[in-house]
Design brief:
This protein is α+β, with helices and mostly antiparallel strands. It is built from 20 helices and 28 strands. It has a 5-stranded mixed β-sheet with strand order 5-4-3-6-7, with helices on both faces. It has a 5-stranded mixed β-sheet with strand order 12-11-10-13-14, with helices on one face. A 5-stranded mixed β-sheet has the order 19-18-17-21-22.
Length: 570
């Protein structure tokens, strides 16, 4: 954002007002803010993220306002005065009066506020200091004052130095705390952990994926303790609610930072946390051995210990050998579980499927993208079966109960693992299923052909079968040849604003015929407009009338929330 060339008084005042207000009605002259750093807090009572951020800002404000020249001015986005007053009553700072909507609207425009909460830091001359106050407060708290670019650069340099000089004490000890706690409330000096391999568990107990991982981690922890390994776990809870933290912590044998410890957010930055759960491994010297072994715990359990680079090289070699030896039976047979279910409920032996091309369909009835994809997959399945009986598809359900499984499976013509079958979890780990729907293809030997068969079905339908690299190259060559004689650009009566360019678009809906298109589109990126080639090109009057004008001559040949297109684990 460019520097705002306005003085503080002109920013915050109006012709009829030269003051700001407190929640008790007291008026404070704008000129009294001279010499202070000011945070313009764009927020509203109806905004959930604002309601969660405001208490954090109150804490920082109370810490800074009595020590340094820092003030906050609330710029309300509330829709009525009653809501404004109720929300403002929780704030210890100043506000632009609710009745002065003109000033509030002007500040929105001046600072280009497009979302809330938004905290813009300015100086006493009205000049912009930091436009990302919310992110700065969340990440660094009061340590970021006075919020200037120079201060932010200083913090970044300090963080880099801390990473270079990292040891166990620099990670776990603060100026006010040199201990972690056990579940019975005892203080355990950090010095007692030196020389051990430490796992820092970043987790939120209310997050199902964390709960599932913690149960696996507990098994590993107990096995390592049984063999007297010098290993310990320290929980760094990112839970908002203390009762939830206590309930989770008291059921596990490891150590933890105290609830709401201020160093927790600092550690999330230090280790560049990007996902939950995360298990950071510190070696006996306190240096980071691995930034996150959660996936390794899922895949290998205690075999991943001691989480060293050498151990991961060893596991990689094991994994490679496992993939090379993979067969359909090694994937689908586990003890007495040597079958899948047919549509009539009969057991189909896995041995009877050996030698066939197999699709493994990870899906669930509760998942909207799955329900949208399944009808297309049914159609493709039938088309493939017509031309090759040596093909089958197996449904692996993530449904939450038998009834949902039965209802969903009734819409499918293929095979399935029984509901609640333990093999499904093993297969999900093998194929690293992070979201559904997911479709993996296996060749006749049982080896994995691709984990991206869903995209191939979406783009090419049954034509993608058997989903091999060679088949996809053939399809690509066919599409490239198809477009050789088509013009690079056309003008069309349905989109007179811009020329349409011949563009590769995996899947789209044609804006003329409303049918799905694949690979080639006459496309306008600015307007997100697409036409099939047959709809864009003047092939003959019976198909396209006189809508299209071809530039350069030549004749053509004929030619989809959980969250977006994927329901991820939550």
């Amino acid at each position: 954002m460019a520097e705002i060339a306005r003085d503080l008084h002109s920013l915050l005042s109006s012709p009829a007002r030269d003051f700001l207000i407190r929640n008790n009605g007291e008026q404070l002259k704008i000129d009294s803010l001279k010499g202070k750093k000011i945070g313009l807090y764009f927020s509203a009572a109806w905004c959930g993220p604002c309601q969660r951020f405001t208490p954090q800002l109150v804490e920082i404000y109370n810490e800074l306002s009595s020590k340094v020249g820092f003030e906050v001015v609330f710029v309300s986005g509330d829709e009525d005065e009653e809501s404004f007053k109720d929300y403002f009553s929780k704030m210890p700072w100043l506000a632009v009066p609710f009745t002065d909507s003109e000033t509030r609207d002007r500040l929105d425009e001046v600072f280009k506020v497009r979302g809330i909460p938004n905290l813009v830091m300015i100086d006493d001359e009205g000049k912009l200091v930091n436009e990302n106050g919310v992110g700065v407060i969340r990440s660094y708290g009061a340590d970021a004052y006075p919020f200037t670019p120079e201060k932010m650069e200083e913090i970044k340099e300090e963080e880099e130095r801390a990473r270079r000089e990292q040891n166990l004490k620099s990670v776990l000890v603060t100026a006010s705390r040199d201990f972690v706690i056990s579940r019975d409330g005892n203080k355990v000096p950090v010095s007692e952990l030196e020389g051990k391999t430490i796992g820092l568990l970043f987790s939120v107990a209310s997050y199902r994926q964390c709960t599932e991982f913690t149960s696996k981690l507990l098994e590993v922890y107990k096995k390592l303790k049984e063999t007297n390994e010098d290993f310990e776990i320290v929980l760094i809870s990112l839970e908002d609610d203390e009762e939830s933290f206590k309930k989770d912590f008291e059921t596990h044998p490891w150590l933890a930072l105290p609830f709401n410890d201020k160093s927790s957010s600092k550690l999330t930055r230090h280790f560049m946390l990007s996902t939950l759960p995360t298990l950071v491994i510190l070696g006996p010297d306190g240096k980071t051995l691995h930034s996150n072994v959660a996936e390794a715990i899922d895949d290998y359990g205690v075999l991943a210990y001691p989480f060293t680079p050498e151990k991961f090289e060893e596991l990689k070699a094991i994994e490679k050998a496992k993939l090379e030896a993979q067969t359909l039976e090694s994937l689908l047979v586990s003890g007495d579980l040597n079958y899948v279910l047919g549509k009539d409920g009969a057991k189909v032996l896995v041995s009877d499927l050996v030698g066939k091309n197999i699709l493994l369909y990870f899906s669930a009835h509760w998942c909207p993208p799955c329900r949208a994809f399944t009808p297309k997959l049914v159609e493709v399945y039938k088309q493939i079966k017509e031309k090759d009986e040596a093909f089958e598809l197996i449904f692996l359900s993530s449904d939450r109960d038998q009834e949902s499984f039965d209802e969903y499976y009734s819409q499918m013509p293929w095979l399935a693992l029984p509901f609640g079958d333990p093999r499904k979890a093993s297969l999900a780990r093998t194929f690293k299923v992070g979201g559904i729907p997911m479709l993996a293809a296996l060749g006749p030997t049982g080896k994995t052909v691709t984990k991206e068969a869903r995209d191939l079905v979406g783009a090419h339908g049954a034509d993608a079968y058997p989903f091999t690299e060679e088949r996809i190259k053939e399809i690509e060559a066919k599409y490239n040849e198809m477009a050789k004689e088509w013009p690079a650009k056309v003008k069309h009566a349905l989109h007179e604003e811009h020329e349409l360019e011949l563009t590769r678009v995996p899947v789209y809906i044609c804006d003329k015929c409303d049918e799905e298109g694949q690979i080639w589109s006459y496309h306008c990126d600015e307007c997100d407009f697409d036409l099939h080639a047959k709809c864009a090109l003047k092939e003959d009057a019976n198909i396209n009338g006189d809508d299209a004008v071809i530039e350069g001559g030549g004749e053509s040949k004929d030619g989809w929330v959980c969250d977006g297109n994927v329901c991820t684990k939550a």
